[in-house]
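TL;DR need C-alpha cells for one chain.
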Amino acid sequence: MCGILGIASRTHDVFAEIYDGLLMLQHRGQDASGIVTYNGEFFREKKANGLVKDVFNTSDAETLLGKVGMGHVRYPTAGSLSASEAQPFFVNAPYGIYLVHNGNITNTEKQREKVTAKYSRHLRTTSDSEVLLNVLADKVADAIKVNGNADPIRNLFAGVKMTMERVQGAYSVICLVAGVGMLAFRDPHGIRPLSVARRETPGAGDDYAFASEDVAFGINGFDKLRDLRAGEAILIDLDGNMHEFQAVEGKLTPCIFEYVYLARPDSLLDGVSVYKTQMRMGQTLAKQIQDSGLEIDRIIPVPDSARPVALEAAKITGIPYREGLVKNRYVGRTFIMPGQEERQKSVRRKLNAVPLEFEGHNVLLIDDSIVRGNTIKKIVQMCREAGAKKVYVASASPPVKFPNVYGIDMPTRHELVASGKEVEEIRKELGADALFYQKLDDLIWAAKEGNPEIESFECSCFDGKYIIGVDGDYLDSLENSSRVSKKREDMQGTGSSWNASKLAIG
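>> reply
TL;DR here they are.
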C-alpha cells in the first residue's frame, strides 16, 4: 500500500502543505518518501528511503518551489526496496509527466515487454509504477498523433482511456504534466481510494487537492468534494479549472481491507466511515463472543487499529475493556533488523504487557487481522508470561487465506497462517485457548451499511475471488519473486518456519 497526495494552488508554493499532508498519510507507507513541485517552467524533485520527517528538512522549502506539486509515501508491494524505486517517476515525453501510484498492476510483465520491445523505451527499475507511467506516455503520444497537439487536455484524457483499456490491476494515480496541470485517475473498479478537495482563495480562484485519504485535506484547509468515480479522470489545469472525464465505464468495488487495517479511523472512503465500520465489526464479533459461552474477564485490544472493534464488543457483551498492552511508539520498523531472530525480538520492543490486567484472568485479545501470525503468537506468549489463566484471540476480519495482488503486501500463500488450515489448526499454531474469526458476510455488512450504493467489495484475500483477471502463472511469479525469496532465506537462515514471518501486517 502507498499514500499519494497532490495540491494545485493559485497563490503560493505548496511544498510545506504537501509535507504536512504526507505526514497524515504516513501510515500508508514508511519505506520511502518523495515530493515533486512545478513552477510552470521546471520540475523540482526529492525522494529517498525513509519517513517523511527524515527525508525532508526546512532547506527543501527553498528549493522545492512551485504552486503545483505532489508527494508519495511508499510501502513496496512490487519491485525492490531500493531507493531508486521510490516515487515519483518521470518521463520527458510527451509533455513531461511525473507520476505517483497507489496499487498494483497484475499484467506488468506483458506491459513491460510492450513498452521495452514495441516502443523501445528504457525502464530504469523493476517497479510496476514505472511501467504504468510509460504505458500512459505511449497512449498520450498515440492520442497526439490522432488529435494533434492543440488540445493537451483532450490528449491526456484519451491517453488515460487507452491506458485503462490496456492495464489490469489496482491503480489510483496522480500526475504532474508540464504546461498542462495536475491529472488524477482511478481504475475501473476503484479498488484503491482517491478523492478530490477544494479550498476557496478569495480573489484568486480555487485551489484543489487529491489524496488517498481525506485526512490529508483538513490540515491544509481543504474541503472534500467527493471520491473519484471508478474509471474516472480529473484534471486541474494551470489556470485552476477542473475538468472531469469518465474514461471508461466503471463499477465501484473498493478493497474491504482498507476498512479493516489500511485506512485511518478518521477517514471517509467512498462514503463509508472507517471508524463506524470498525464499530460495526465489533458488534458482529460480540455475538460470536456471547454465543461461545466462555468465561472472559477482560477484552484487550492489540493496539492500535483494533481499539474501535474491541470497545464496541466490550460495550455489547458487558465484558470490561482494558488497555493491557502498551505500545512503544519510538521503535523502528522490524524489517530493518539484521535477522529474523532480531525481528521477532522487536515484537517485545514494540509492545509490553501490563501484568495487573493479566494475572489470574481469562483475557480475550482482539486484533484487526491475523495475516502471517507471528506477531499475535508472540503476544499470546507474552500474555501467559504476564500471568493470564486463559488467552483467547478474536480477529476482526475473516481468515486471510489468499494472496492479495492489488497493493497489499500479502503476496504468497506460504506466508499466510490461515492458508489451507481450519480454525482449530490455526488456534493451535498461535497457542491460543480459543480463536474467533469475523464472518465474511458480517464484514461486508459492516462496510456496506455505511454506503448501501456500493454493490460489492474486493475481498479476494478472504474468498480468493479476483475481480480482475489473475492467472496461475502470475500467482506463481509472486511466490517465486526475489522479495519473497529474500524473506524465505532470512527465515531459513535462523531456523524459523516460513509461516512465521510478519514484516508489516498481521
